[in-house]
Amino acid sequence: MTTLRAIVVLGSAALLTACGGSSTNSGNATRTISIPFEAFAGSTEISCDASLQGLGIGGSSASLADFKIFIHDVRLVTDEDVEIPVTLDDDNWQADGIALLDFQDKGDGCNGDLKPVNTSLRGSVPDQPVVIAGVRFKVGVPSSHNHNNVATAPTPLNLPGMFWNWQGGYKHLRFDVRPNGGVTRPTDGAWTNTTWNIHLGATNCTPDPRVDPNTPEDVSCEYNNRPEISLTGFDDTASAIRIDYAALVIDNELSEDAGGAPGCMSGNTDPECTNVFDNLGMTLGAAVGPANEQSVFSVVLQP
Prior knowledge:
This protein has 5 helices and 22 strands.
């Protein structure tokens, strides 16, 4: 199917030339592209009204509180492993090459009224006679934008709920659920929490001591925590990218928290973060050894 598509692209370019239009020969022709994403927890599509079942070691049931993720540096990959950058459009969900995907379809932590969601990336690529066989992208906000002033940043980079502080920067992703029965801490019988959170972001960020510490561009982070996702078998005319929350938390017990922030908020010594980072294809903090292959993102056929 993809080989046929490549022939069609070349044929359409030739037709444009015959009609006096632009072509790939000009080196400037582009085509629009939309990359759909979908969010699931196992076989259950994520939404505010969904009951998420069988999560983690104990098979916890939970409801959604928040599900947002930033994406940047998107590239299609040809069957010859050549990367083709995707230029993202600027709109209410995308700015400066950074997109926010939002699967939380109600406001106020899923307790409010219906609100818009964003489940795709929109942009353009050079119109070339190639066979697309994969896609690559990075999770999070790049260093160049991570320490923006969120009050003056363009949408979608102006959401306070996706920002820690000027030094820490943005939450690259925010996946929060409410386990039925809440969250307890075995080492502290008085400790309880209603949500089990995953907030991924840069850590060990420090200002340059030689300059004004309130100048965001001088912040340096030891651990950027931006996983790069590389997927094969992707057809940009027929595929979607699935995010599987169940695969992300499969090694954790969502009804309990062993220490640190509730769930995993990227703390370098947080016991819940080791498995979360492993499943995203990263190592936590100063951990040594090769990172695991990520298991959260996959290519699926569009319905």
